[in-house]
Amino acid sequence: QVQLVESGGGLVQPGGSLRLSCTMISNIFTISTLAWTRQTPESQRALVASISPDSKATYAESVTGRFIISRDNEKTTIHLEMKNLKPEDTAVYYCKATADFGSGIVVDYWGQGTQVTVSS
Fold first, then answer.
1. What is the mean pLDDT of residues 94-109?
2. Residue 104 exposed, middle or buried by CB count within 10 Å (0-12, 13-18, 19+)
């Protein structure tokens, strides 16, 4: 089982900053990549940033240079530092953990989502 607990969403003015956190509670030892995704009522869920077990980070082009993803030393919590937020960043942000069980079996686990609203 994998449980992902998110926190840190809220309302912020354009140009402001927020920090999201996601803590993973799991008895599965094959969790590989952790990631943040986001979804609006008008769009499908899309990748924002991901981080590998060796802390290699990747970002969507729309957030590169503004968002930073990181993970703690125990690799059970990830953070998303969001700066210079724009109204188009408004979305529900979901944490995702990917477990690779081998033999081609890959399972994604999701958090409950946290709302980020960027508005003046």
1. 90
2. exposed
Tokens of 103: 């033999």
Quick check: helix, strand or coil at residue 71? strand
CA distance 34 to 36: 7
Helix (H, G, I), strand (E, B) or coil at 55: coil
- Count of CB atoms within 10 A of residue 86's CB? 14
Burial 58-81 (b: 16+ CB within 10 A, else e): ebeeebeeebebebeeeeebbbbe
For residue 30, what pLDDT is reported? 67
pLDDT of 116 above 80: yes
- Residues 15-26 have pLDDT tens digits of 999 999 999 888
Residue 97 has which token pair? Answer: 């953990």
